[in-house]
From TrEMBL:
<dbReference type="GO" id="GO:0006281">
    <property type="term" value="P:DNA repair"/>
</dbReference>
<feature type="binding site">
    <location>
        <position position="165"/>
    </location>
    <ligand>
        <name>Mg(2+)</name>
    </ligand>
</feature>
<dbReference type="InterPro" id="IPR036412">
    <property type="entry name" value="HAD-like_sf"/>
</dbReference>
<protein>
    <recommendedName>
        <fullName>Phosphoglycolate phosphatase</fullName>
        <ecNumber>3.1.3.18</ecNumber>
    </recommendedName>
</protein>
<dbReference type="InterPro" id="IPR037512">
    <property type="entry name" value="PGPase_prok"/>
</dbReference>
<keyword id="KW-0378">Hydrolase</keyword>
<comment type="pathway">
    <text>Organic acid metabolism; glycolate biosynthesis; glycolate from 2-phosphoglycolate: step 1/1.</text>
</comment>
<keyword id="KW-0479">Metal-binding</keyword>
<dbReference type="InterPro" id="IPR041492">
    <property type="entry name" value="HAD_2"/>
</dbReference>
<comment type="function">
    <text>Specifically catalyzes the dephosphorylation of 2-phosphoglycolate. Is involved in the dissimilation of the intracellular 2-phosphoglycolate formed during the DNA repair of 3'-phosphoglycolate ends, a major class of DNA lesions induced by oxidative stress.</text>
</comment>
<dbReference type="InterPro" id="IPR023214">
    <property type="entry name" value="HAD_sf"/>
</dbReference>
<dbReference type="InterPro" id="IPR050155">
    <property type="entry name" value="HAD-like_hydrolase_sf"/>
</dbReference>
<dbReference type="GO" id="GO:0008967">
    <property type="term" value="F:phosphoglycolate phosphatase activity"/>
</dbReference>
<feature type="binding site">
    <location>
        <position position="7"/>
    </location>
    <ligand>
        <name>Mg(2+)</name>
    </ligand>
</feature>
<feature type="active site" description="Nucleophile">
    <location>
        <position position="7"/>
    </location>
</feature>
<dbReference type="GO" id="GO:0005975">
    <property type="term" value="P:carbohydrate metabolic process"/>
</dbReference>
<dbReference type="GO" id="GO:0046295">
    <property type="term" value="P:glycolate biosynthetic process"/>
</dbReference>
Length: 219
């Protein structure tokens, strides 16, 4: 069985608007101002703990506030994880066609598993994914390879290819010994050439061919 494993934020979905809204609801609760969308988008990638650390630093708040702010952020985000979120163009067809071609599909994200599953469900994609591992599922987060290897394991896959948008995903795939295709329209913080990848793409219409080729080379 061959598997294609996807990252979520910045790869399948443009989730920054909902994350931004939940951050600002959190800040508003205590009268701590707001942050703009570009700033918050830049904070995405290392999971919710780091997101809130970056929010605290950006607003010049005390680090002691972290537990309460994380709790508030999760409350707001879990209540409304998909209203402003969109799939990147071509994702729906790409996921369906990879599934129809017989690939097992998995999700490996640093977002907590609960809202990740809720988002897949909101877009009707949950039925295609045989395994979902979030930032709180296995005790470590990407770029540690354990979450990615856990998805491959859950799928019972002999060969897997990872698809993601950031330097965190590229490092994770490399450490897991997995081929990596980089989506260049997501939330990366580094230049293309600083991120290890076997292929890159800016349009999901071509991903099915790329993923098939990488899975074949991996035999
Ligand atoms: O929640 C995050 O910070 C990043 O999520 P991702 O791993 O799906 O890009
Ligand atoms: Mg991502």
């Amino acid at each position: 069985m061959k598997a294609i494993i996807f990252d979520l934020d910045g790869t399948l979905i443009d989730s920054a608007p909902d994350i931004h809204a939940a951050v600002n609801k959190t800040l508003a609760e205590t009268g701590d101002g707001e942050l703009d969308l570009d700033t918050v988008r830049d904070f995405i990638g290392n999971g919710v703990h780091v997101l809130i650390e970056r929010v605290i630093a950006a607003r010049g708040l005390s680090a002691d506030r972290h537990p309460a702010m994380l709790e508030s952020f999760l409350k707001h985000y879990e209540a409304d994880p998909a209203t402003l979120t969109t799939l990147f163009p071509g994702v729906q067809d790409c996921v369906e066609s990879l599934h129809d071609e017989g690939f097992a599909l998995g999700l490996c994200t640093n977002k907590p598993e609960g809202p990740s599953r809720a988002i897949l469900q909101a877009f009707g994609l949950d039925k295609y994914f045989g395994a979902v591992v979030g930032g709180d599922t296995v005790g470590t987060k990407k770029p540690d390879p354990a979450p990615l290897l856990a998805v491959k394991d859950k799928l019972g896959a002999r060969v897997a290819v990872y698809i993601g948008d950031s330097e965190i995903d590229g490092e994770c795939a490399q450490r897991a010994g997995m081929k990596f295709a980089l989506f260049t329209e997501g939330y990366r913080h580094k230049g293309l050439h600083e991120i290890p990848h076997e292929a890159r793409f800016d349009d999901f219409d071509v991903l099915s061919a790329i993923a098939g080729r990488l899975a074949e080379e991996n035999r």
